[in-house]
Structure formats: C-alpha cells, structure tokens
Amino acid sequence: MTTATARVARPGHSAPKTSKNARSRERALAWARRAPLLPALIFLIIVTQLPFVVTLIISFLNWNSLRPDQTGFAGFDNYVQVLTNADLRQAIFTTIILTVSVVLASLVIGLGLALLLDKKFIGRGLARTLLIAPFLVVPVAAALIWKHALLNPTYGLINGVLTWIWSLFGSNTPPQPDLLSQAPLMAVIVSLVWQWTPFMMLILLAGLQSRPMDTVEAAQMDGASPWDIFRQLTLPHLRQYLELGGLLGAIYIVQNFDAVFTLTSGGLGTANLPYAIYQTFYFANEYGLASAAGVVVVIGTIIVATFALRTVFSLFKKEAAR
Amino acid sequence: MSTLTPAEHQKSGPARSTSPTALNTGSRRSRFGKIGGKSRMDPTRNNTAAGIAAWLLALLFAAPVLWMILTSFHSETDAATNPPSVAANLTLDAYKEFFGASSGVIPWPPLINSATASILSTVLVLVLAIPAAYALSIRPVKKWTDVMFFFLSTKMMPVVAAVLPLFLFAKTAGALDNIWFLILMYTSMNLPIAVWMMRSFLAEVPVEILEASQIDGAGLLLTLRKIIAPVAMPGIAATALICFIFSWNELLLARVLTGVMAGTAPVFLTGFVSSQGLFLAKVCAAAVVISLPVLFAGFAAQDKLVQGLSLGAVK
C-alpha cells in the first residue's frame, strides 16, 4: 500500500528517488500514528505477558521454596498432579459449578428485573438506584456482611426475619437454617448472585431500551400476547446482550477470590481455583504446582474467552467496518 | 391469538435488522441518527403491578445494604438480636470503635493506602489510555482492531495465573509491601478496560468537524482542546470513576503483594474481624466506611456505568 500511494502521489521522471522519500515519509507518518499507542502497549506486555511466560516456565519445575535443594526440571509432573490431586480437582469442579450457577442465576433474575424496570411506574429511578446498590458495595465488605449480618445462624438477618414471621403466627419454633455450614457453596453462590444481578440487569436493560418499539406496537395492535412479543421479538433482540453479559460475568466470576476467601476461607469444598492456587503458593510454597494450576485456569479461561471475544467482536465489527 | 401471522413476521424482519444499528453504539453515526433511547414511544400504560413487583424486588436487593447501614448505627447488643431489633436507638459507637476509640487500631493508614493506590493508578491509566485510544479511534493505526483485541485478551487472563511471578519479582527486587508496585499492578489491571472505554467515547467525536478543523489549519492542541475534549470529558470522568472502583475493590493482589506498610482497606477489612465478643455493628460500620467511596463513585458514574462495564459495547 505504501508503494502504491507513493507511485500515485509522485509520477514523473524522478520517480525512484521521490518514491523512496515518500516511502520513508509515509513510514514516519505511520510511526507518528503508532507513537501514542506504544507506551500503553509496551507497559501492558511487560506487566501482563512476561509474568505469564514465567508462570509457564515455573509450571515445569519442581520448586518448593521450603526445599530449595530439590529444585529441578519436573516435566509434566505438576500438571499430572493438578489433575490427580483431590483438592485441586475439587477446585476445578467448584470453579465450574460456581461460575455456571452464578452466571445463569444472575442472568435470569437480571432479565426479570430489567423487564420490570423497562415499564413505567412511580419511582422507577429510585428503584433502579436501589437495585444497583449491591454492585457498589466493596466485594470484601459485601462478603463480610453476608457472613456475619445476614447468614449468621443465631443473629443473622435471615434467621431473625424467620423468627419474626413465625412469631406472628404464634410459633416458637421457627426454622433456623445455617447455610454457611450446611451448604457453604450455596452461601457463596447466593452472595455472588446478589452482587452480579445488577450488572446483568444494567446490560439487559440497555438492550431492552434499544429495542425498536414500532414492531412491538405493531404486534400489539395485531393482537399478539405479551408472551408472544417477549418470545418472538424481545428475546431474539436480547440474545447478544444475554451473551455479552453472561460471558463478561463468567470472566469475572471465574477469577473470584474475595467471596470464597471471606465467606468460607475455602473450607468444605468451596475452594475455587484462584483460592486453591493462592493457598498452594502462599502457604504450601509449592511454586511449581501453583503455576501449573494457574496455566490450567488460563487454558479454561481461553476457552470461555474465545466465545466472549467472538460475541464482543460481533458487536464490534459493525463499528469497525464503518 | 397465540402466534404471529406470516405478515407480522415480515413486519418484524426489517425491524430486527435495524437493531444492530442501535447496538452499534459509540459509532459516529449514532450521534446523528440514534435509534431507541429515552425519547422512544412508550406504551404509556402505568403498570401498577409491575411497579409493585419492581419495588418489592428493589427493596429485597437493597435490604442487605440498608441493613448494613442501619446496623452500623446500632449498639453491639442491639445489633445481634434474634428477631432483629429494627427500631433500636441509634448511636455512633460502632464508628467510634472502628476508628480505634478503645482498641487504638487506627484504620487511616490502609484507607490512605487504598486512596493512594486507586487515585494514582487511575491517573496513570488515563495518561496511558487516552493517547492509546486516540491512536485507535481518531487517527487509527493499521490493524487497530487487532490491537483492541490484544488489550482485551490481557484482561481475560486471570490475575491468579500471573501473581506468583509478580510476588517473586517483588520479593527479589525489594518491592514487596511497596505501594508503588501495587499502583503499577492496578494500572495494568485497568488499562485494557480504560482503552476500550475511552475508544468508544472518542469514537463519538464527529469526524466531519475534525476534518473541517484540519482544513482550517487548526493545530493539534487546538483540536484537542476545542473539539475532542468537550466530547471526551464525560467519558474520561466515567472511565476514571470505574477504574477507581476496580482498584479500590481489589483484594488478591493487595493481599499477596502488601503487608503492614502498604496494606489497603480491603486487606485491613479481612483482618478486622475478631472471633471474640460482639463485633457486628463494628463490622457494619467498617463495611459502610470502606464502601462509601465506591457508592459515591458508582452513583456518580451511573449513566455511563453500563457502557464502562460492557467495555463500550452497550450504551
């Protein structure tokens, strides 16, 4: 392209010389265009790509910082251990269950809330603000509140409300479930669904509000039931938004550390991979093993991210093609 | 009537094909012909039932937050009752306790560390992201979409896969428990998001006016100040607020890379809970204090929150 432009720009007898000049000028221009981009690009490569290369290398080493004399090449031993070690395999399953259930539940609830907020009613703005609030509590603080103020079996709000409701009916024996010790993974899931539903709701609400209303009105005039309109018009339109919300949510929730760390400290089968990796290198000092587990997470994320990137790309390429 | 007739399908056809245009946010076109948006015709039925349902759910979702705030103003004995004592006397004791009235443990250093890390990393992010976004939208480099997706892909790599080398590097280089190292980490964490957001905001600068100003011989600085800045400023503000929130919330890196000196507020909070005695009101007060900056920033950025969280894909 450079030469073509140059040839068009400078036809005539001194073509070779000027075209060389033009080419170098063009190159300088291209670098001038690139210059503002380079600091960000170089910074990001150094800070994010280099460490991952190091992780990759360490994952093939037998390296425990408590036994430095035994450090050496380990081949695929660490990977075999990640897939056979009961704790780490459990962590892989926990990560999958946690991510899938949180994403699906918050998408469904978020869709319901978005559909309600799309209607006109008194105080809609305030209701929307209240619904966003869970997303704007620091995750660690939210986890602490769930653990101590809501789910605590003796004085948590949930059991407190159960006591109050049962006492209204004159009962002294209200159910007092202890989610944190009976179903700790469920406790983590519930608190994360609570935090992530607003995220899904906001994205889906934006999708609903970009829905072409004329077709909906036409369908209404032709006597289509609300359910038909939802299924035939709204849902197809929302598909991209559902995908986008689900995949972005999945990317964040796969990486979740705060809720598991705070609510259960990874106990009772709630340790997901980020927490297990943290434990493996921070407390067990098994650097090689932790790195191999990290690489496994990255592979899993790449699989999810490929779909995510495709979705983002489909939204994006229309814009790029302008 | 249960299904749409073929005629109605045909009617819905072209409308469905226009929806990508509405989706296609951040494009220069969308400034001029916005489809959808707030001014659209609404079925003006006042949906009482939907309103009641929405309000009930909104209160249910906000209940933990409201309960946290209420409990933080209760005394420890009123905070831990079953059934809950909603109407108990209000007091500031829990806040006094949080700020070290009797324990002497003062939460200011971690709060200041959090503020330092969040604000400085946000400034760094903007310094790096704005020129990059300029080179990806207003005067785009070749293959700028590839560059965009490289930025995005770094965000998709879990932090936990890189945290060990970072920890080892910090340990060898003596950067452990150093706030500046954390600031650099937060910068890299938020840079891809900021580049994507800023690009979608800068893409709204009308290209016709840019070209006209160039023909009139306006210099780069003048163009930046008079044409780009007015359009980009709200976007820069929203980007900054969202980067601030993400940095302020971060726990894993802070937990691994900092300690006594550079520990941030979330790290402080995890170590705050003692197993003895009554502490519920104090925990709630701590959670309120630490969440306040995020709540303010989030509500300030409310209008642009979706665009930021969806990396500019949705407006």
Keywords:
heterodimer; A: 322 residues; mainly alpha; MetI-like fold; two-stranded antiparallel ribbon; 15 helices; 2 strands; 75% helix; 1% strand; flat; B: 315 residues; disordered N terminus
Give a nutshell description of this structure:
Chain A is an all-alpha fold and 322 residues long. Chain A has a single domain (84-320), classed as MetI-like fold, CATH 1.10.3720.10. Chain A is built from 15 helices and 2 strands.
Strand tally of chain A is 2
Q: Specify the structural class of chain B.
A: mainly alpha
Percent of residues in β-strands of chain B: under 5%
Largest inter-chain interface?
A-B, 132 and 133 residues
Total number of helices of chain A: 15
Structure characterization notes:
- The complex is a heterodimer of chains A (322) and B (315).
- Chain A is 75% helix and 1% strand.
- By secondary structure, chain A is mostly helical.
- Chain A has a two-stranded antiparallel sheet with strand order 1-2.
- In chain A, helix 1 (2-9) crosses helix 2 (15-34) and helix 7 (139-150) crosses helix 10 (184-209).
- With 315 residues, chain B is mainly alpha-helical.
- Chain B has a domain at 109-267 and 299-309: MetI-like fold (Orthogonal Bundle).
- Chain B contains 15 helices and no strands.
- Chain B has helices at 6-23, 28-32, 48-72, 76-79, 93-98, 108-137, 144-156, 163-173, 179-202, 207-215, 220-249, 252-257, 265-270, 280-300, 302-309.
- In chain B, helix 6 packs across helix 11 and helix 11 packs across helix 15.
- Chains A and B meet through helix 2, helix 3, helix 5, helix 6 and helix 7 of A and helix 1, helix 3, helix 6, helix 7 and helix 8 of B.
